Amino acid sequence: MPKFLHTADWQMGRAFTRFETEDGAALVEARFEAVETLARLANKHQCDAVLVAGDVFDAQTVSDRTIRRVFNATQGFAGPWVMLPGNHDAALAESVWTRAQRLGAVPENVHLALQPGVIDLEPQNLSILCAPLTQRHTYGDLTEPFSCYQSPEGFLRVGLAHGSVQGLLPDEIDSTNPIAPNRAEASRLDYLALGDWHGTKQINERTWYCGTPEPERFRNNEAGNALIVEVSEPGATPKVSQLPTGRYQWHQWRATLAVHSDLEQLLERLNALPDSAVVDLRLEGSVTLAGEETLMRALSVAEARFRSLRCERSGLQLSPTDEDIATLKADGYVGEVIESLRLRQGQGQEIAEDDTARDALAILAGLLREREQEASQ
Fold this sequence. Notes:
Blueprint: E1 3-7, H1 21-44, E2 49-52, H2 64-73, E3 81-83, H3 96-103, E4 110-112, E5 117-121, E6 126-131, E7 156-162, E8 164-165, E9 178-179, H4 183-186, E10 191-195, E11 201-204, E12 207-209, E13 225-230, E14 239-244, E15 249-257, H5 260-272, E16 277-287, H6 289-305, E17 308-318, H7 322-328, H8 332-344, H9 351-376
Parallel strand pairs: 1-2, 2-3, 3-4, 6-7, 7-10, 8-9, 10-12, 15-16, 16-17
Antiparallel strand pairs: 1-13, 5-6, 11-12, 13-14
Helix pairs in contact: 5-6, 8-9
């Protein structure tokens, strides 16, 4: 029973500049580890080949070191790898692929599908019908020639392409690099391995997007997987198994705080996340001074535990209660300052003015607490 691993969208060389330096470096390294994981899975499941459906590299300009490291990471699986250029690493006349060849970095068991056509893997009885992108954007279906491609008798016909299945992906997906939704049926394919959509998605029983093996964005689209595909014989329905490969889990939350129970529920959700979480949090609404202290303490703990935590609090106002003010013993002029800062939140012409008022209020509250603690010692 022929069996192969379907992967795509490695995006090697991607920089995570919006993160702290340490976190960005860890996210980059995780992508190399994902390729090593793919090699181990291919061995564990006794796969005949690994098919990479485009965007191995994030750009044509990645460093020579990145190129070498990518191919080094494949060494754990000695069987054939077939790599297809996608829109990020299109097979231009001069490309990241030609540079890899000049460097001598491409192992003998790695087949580069730089031209449209068929790669026959004879010991494995696999015919890989390839539709590489030779430019970043095309407006015709590059898989259409599959119908004319011949394959040896008894070989599985497996299509390998990178693009957007028309009419079946979300509206915001680019209309470039189109692929007919019935391509597998029209071209007598046993399986069509696709890349470009970064989440795992089934189009029909013979057509799948595998998604990126390591998540790299805040989108809940089933990223971080690879697919093991088994086809008992030509014409048989494929058996597709989804295997997790991602190291980090990405979470993007938007929360509005109004009452104390909202804060409690938020902190419970944070506590339930694993250490491998990459979290982007945006808070709105209002919180008391006591709630703010609880929140900041919890965020500090989570920031040290998670791979990355970013919290946007510009939409969150501090609303001191009478109990807050009484606890701080902020009477007289100090109490008036606290009230003034509270009112200035949300009244500034710029977000920075709101942030300044909120931060000043938090700092003042902190100083008053410290004074109270020192007085009680």
